[in-house]
Amino acid sequence: MKRDEQIRLLKHLLHQLDTGTNLDAGVMLRAPSSVYSCPERASQERERFFLDYPQMIGMSGDLPENGSFLTREDWGVKILATRDQDGNFRAFLNACRHRGVSIEGEERGKRTRFMCPFHAWTYASDGKLVNVPKSGHFGDVDKDCRGLIELPAVEKYGVLLVHPKRDGTINPEVVLEGLGPDFESWGFPDYVYGGSDVYEVPLNWKLAIDTFGETYHFSALHRNTLYPVFHGNVQGFDHWERNHRMILCTREIDTLREHPESEWRLRGPGFPVYWLFPNVMFNVGAQLVSIVRVYPHPTEVGRSISQVSFYLDPAVAGSVEGRALPTEIARRFGDVIRDEDYVAAADSQRAADSGLQDAFIFGRNEPTLHHYHNTYNKMLGLPPLEPIEG
Ligand code: FES
Ligand SMILES: [Fe+2]
Predict the structure, then answer these.
(1) How many structural domains compose the chain?
(2) Domain boundary residue, one of 125, 150, 169
(3) 276 near 289, Cβ under 8 Å?
(4) Tens digit of each residue's pLDDT (9 = 90 or more) over 331-355
(5) Is the entire prediction scored with pTM above 0.85?
(6) Residue nearest to atom 4 of ligand 1 (CA)
(7) Residue 283, Cβ density class (10 Å: 0-12 exposed, 13-18 middle, ≥19 buried)
(8) Which of these three, 169, 190, 221, is where a domain ends?
C-alpha cells in the first residue's frame, strides 16, 4: 500500500480517537433473524455463494513448490489442487476416473504421481492419467480422455481461486476487487504456510462473519483479551461492490505522534482486516496473516465450520521466533475467536432459532455489517435491509 494511503488511514484512526468518534453509517438497519435460521435462505446461499461462485481455497504458500498438492472438501466437493511440474496452479475433482475414489488422502504434501488406493490407477500433477494396471485385462482405456476432471483455477495476488463448476469462469479482478493491490503490496504471494486450525461451531456461517465486522464489542466481550491491545469502537472502512477493508486500531497507535510521519507504517498501529465475499476474512498482523474461511454446515442451518490458516511473512518464516509464531497466534486466536466471539454468536443463534426474536439490529457504527448483509441480499436478488428509527 502506498505510503500516503497508509498515513491517511492512520490519521483517520487518530482523528477518531481525538474526537471520540467512530464510523457513522447514518442509519441503523434491521436484519431479520431468519437470515440465520431459515432453511430456504440457507439453500439459496449454498447454491449461489458456494456452488456457483469462485472459492478461495488457500494461498500461494499452500503450494510452495512444483509438485506440491493441497486437498479441500469445504463445500461438499472433493478438491485436489496441485502446482504442476511447470509451476501452474491446477484444481481437480479428487476422484479417480475408474470408480471415483479419492486419489489423495493427505491434506498437503509433494508428489509427482498420485496413485489411487483402490486399483492403483495413477495420475500426474497436471491431471493426466499415466498408468492403468493390467490394462490388457481391464480394457482399452484412452488415457488422453480419462485424466482427472479439471476445474477452473486462478492464482492471483497470492490467492488460490477455484470455481466449483467445470464451465464456471473466474475473473480475478472482479472476485478480488479492491483487495489485489493491498495483497500484492503486503507480499502475500511470498507468504509461507505456518499451520491451521478448524472450529466447528453451532452458529450460522454469517454469524461467524459478523463477529469480525466491528470493534464496538471489544471493550465488553474481549475486555481481558483483545481490549488491552486494541482500541474499541474505532475503525477504518473502505468497500467495493462485494469486498471490503477494515482497519482496526491497536494501542501501538498511541506512540505514533512521538515519531515523524516519515517513520509511520500502517501495520502495527493499524490492523487491516479484509473481507473477500462471501466467506473469507484476512486478518493482517505485523508478521503473520490469519485467514478464516467460513462454510455452512452441509445439513444444519445453525452450524458452520471455520477453517483457520496462518501464513508468515517470509522475512520471519526462517527464524526460530517466526516458526513459533503460528502456534502462539493459533492459541490466541482460539482464545478470542473460538472461545469469545463464537460463543456469543452461538448464543445469538439460539435467539434466532427461538422464533421469538424477529430481528437483530446493526448500528450506525457497524457499517461493515451493513455491507456484508446488503451484499448477500444483492447477490441473491433481495432488497437491502430496512433502516429503523429506534
Ligand atoms: S477406483 Fe481408482 S483405480 Fe479403481
Ligand atoms: Fe470479536
Answers:
(1) 2
(2) 169
(3) no
(4) 999 999 999 999 999 999 999 999 9
(5) yes
(6) 119
(7) buried
(8) 169
